[in-house]
Structure formats: structure tokens, C-alpha cells
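testing teh design pipeline on a random one, pls ignore if ur not involved
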């Protein structure tokens, strides 16, 4: 699911995209490109990107009409997808995404907010002092909102939710019976940029955050919105205090994550995952269902389902204990 909130300024003629990327290809016919999406969600008329062999199975099945990629990877694309060959896939994708979604590059403060007392039809919502609400915000019945909290533009909150004090939320869909404790920051731009010519080129983030029913988000948690997909906290998942969930991370239902855990971008966790405090998970990994990760572990490769791991690099707990007698 892409961000339903950022405006798409497309379609753009394919030759505009080629010019932007400094590509000269006489074999490409003139037509419009409607949108830029990831490999999975793309459809005919869209542009996608493919930068790692890890995603070759998705690349082979993509329905996109065009794909930003490299010479080494183009053979893994579906036959219906035309490769656009570049040197750096991610920088090129960043340029194209910024063209389609120019308002997604920066996260300036929301100047549309108004005092919650100016909003009508919030009879069943109890709220503290100094609450600000942006445009395109909906709040369900029987909700609580703590002091000094800002619900910025583009947020949907379900029924029976509790939002703590000093919390900022934007670009987020929240289900029913969700508790978000104090000092959280949810839906902001993720940590995506590329050093280039002594400057950092910021990557646009056009995704959202989705927090499903019956979740709890602990104090001081930061959950980044997706870069091109959705950051998901699955149903009945509980996060402890001071946790960082990076862009595009997906956490399955009924998971429990202890304090100070960090999960890097685009990693996918299955159902019933338990993670001890201060563990770290690298990006673009897959953690299976029913996995337990001991506190302080460093996960740098995929973990199959029903595993218990420990240490750095994280390994099967029996092997870890054997190696550290």
C-alpha cells in the first residue's frame, strides 16, 4: 500500500524520465509513466527499481512497464518490463520519486494544525491541554489524547485508542484499541540518503505507517514511515520503550519486542516473534514465525521460523552456549 496522502504529480512522459536519468535509448517508444512503485505493487504503466539479487524472484514477476536497474541485474527482470540501465539504482530512483512526489522529500512542521478545541464532533474524545490537530485527521470514539500532543496531517485513529502526552503522529493509520504511550514519534521521514559530491541526497519517503488493532507502542518509540511501501506493526504486537522501527519494516501479529531494540529498514518479521532488549536487526532480512532473539544479539542474516538465537552474530542458542562455555 503506497501513501494515500502524498500527491502524485505524474504521469510523465517516459522521455522526461530518461532525460532526468541521463539515459539515451532509441529503442524506447513514447508513452506516459503513471507512477513509481516497488517491484510487488507495480502494474502496467508504472516504473519500479531493482538493485539487489536478493529481490530477483520479485523482479521476475513484476508487472511494471519499466525498471531502473543495472546491466548485471537486467536479465532477472520479467520479459514485459523494459530495463532502464543506470550506475546507481537507488540514487536514480530517488530522483524519479522526487519528481513524482516532490512534497515527500522533506518533513517540515505541519502548518495546518489547529487547536483541538476548534474541532467539532469530538464529544467522545477526552483530551488534555495544548493538543494540535492537522488536516485530514479522523479520530474514532472513546479515545484519549494526552497533553502537548500533535496529530499532524494525514492520520486516522480508530476507536478506543489512547495517545500519550508529548507525542507526534503523521502519515499513519491506527486501528482500534491501540495504546501509544508518551514521547513517541510516528510517521516521520526515515533515515534515507546518499552521500554525493560532499552533500547528502535525501531519499523521498512516500509510504505510511499502519498500526493494527490491539497494539501497544511504548514510551519514546520512533516508527518511520515507509520509503515506498508501508511500515506495519501487526495486530496485538507490543513494543517496549525506546524502540526504533525503520522504514518499510513489517512486524507480524502477536510479537513482543523489549526496550532499546533497533530494526533497520525493510526487514520483515513473522508472527509471534520475541526480541530481548538492546538487540539489533540489520536491514533487508527475513525473520520467520515463532523466532526468539535473545537480548543484546546482533542479527545480520535471515532466521528461519521456530528458531531461538543469541549473540553476535546471532546464531542458534545451543551453538552459542557451546561456543561460549
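output:
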Amino acid at each position: 500500500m503506497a501513501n494515500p496522502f502524498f500527491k502524485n504529480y505524474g504521469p510523465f512522459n517516459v522521455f522526461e524520465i530518461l532525460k532526468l536519468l541521463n539515459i539515451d535509448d532509441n529503442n524506447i517508444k513514447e508513452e506516459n509513466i503513471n507512477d513509481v512503485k516497488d517491484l510487488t505493487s507495480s502494474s502496467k504503466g508504472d516504473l519500479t527499481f531493482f538493485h539487489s539479487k536478493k529481490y530477483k524472484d520479485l523482479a521476475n514477476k513484476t508487472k511494471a512497464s519499466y525498471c531502473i536497474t543495472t546491466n548485471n541485474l537486467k536479465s532477472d527482470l520479467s520479459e514485459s518490463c523494459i530495463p532502464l540501465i543506470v550506475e546507481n539504482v537507488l540514487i536514480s530512483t530517488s530522483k524519479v520519486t522526487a519528481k513524482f512526489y516532490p512534497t515527500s522529500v522533506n518533513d517540515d512542521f505541519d502548518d495546518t494544525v489547529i487547536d483541538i478545541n476548534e474541532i467539532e464532533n469530538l464529544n467522545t474524545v477526552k483530551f488534555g491541554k495544548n493538543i494540535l490537530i492537522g488536516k485530514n485527521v479522523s479520530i474514532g470514539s472513546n479515545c484519549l489524547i494526552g497533553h502537548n500532543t500533535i496529530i499532524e496531517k494525514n492520520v486516522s485513529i480508530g476507536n478506543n485508542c489512547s495517545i500519550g502526552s508529548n507525542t507526534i503522529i503523521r502519515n499513519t493509520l491506527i486501528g482500534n484499541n491501540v495504546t501509544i504511550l508518551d514521547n513517541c514519534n510516528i510517521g516521520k521521514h526515515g533515515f534515507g540518503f546518499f552521500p554525493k559530491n560532499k552533500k547528502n541526497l535525501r531519499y523521498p519517503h512516500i509510504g505510511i505507517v499502519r498500526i493494527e488493532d490491539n497494539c501497544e507502542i511504548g514510551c519514546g518509540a520512533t516508527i518511520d514511515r515507509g520509503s515506498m511501501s508501508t511500515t506495519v506493526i501487526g495486530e496485538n504486537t507490543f513494543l517496549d520503550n525506546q524502540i526504533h522501527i525503520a522504514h518499510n519494516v513489517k512486524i507480524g501479529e502477536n510479537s513482543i519486542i523489549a526496550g532499546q531494540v533497533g530494526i533497520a529498514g525493510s526487514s520483515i518479521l513473522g508472527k509471534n516473534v520475541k526480541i530481548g532488549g538492546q538487540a539489533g536487526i540489520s536491514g533487508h532480512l527475513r525473520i520467520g514465525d515463532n523466532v526468539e532473539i535473545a537480548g543484546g544479539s546482533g542479527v545480520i542474516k535471515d532466521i528461519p521460523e521456530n528458531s531461538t538465537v543469541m549473540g553476535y552474530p546471532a546464531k542458534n542458542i545451543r551453538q552459542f552456549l557451546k561456543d561460549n562455555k
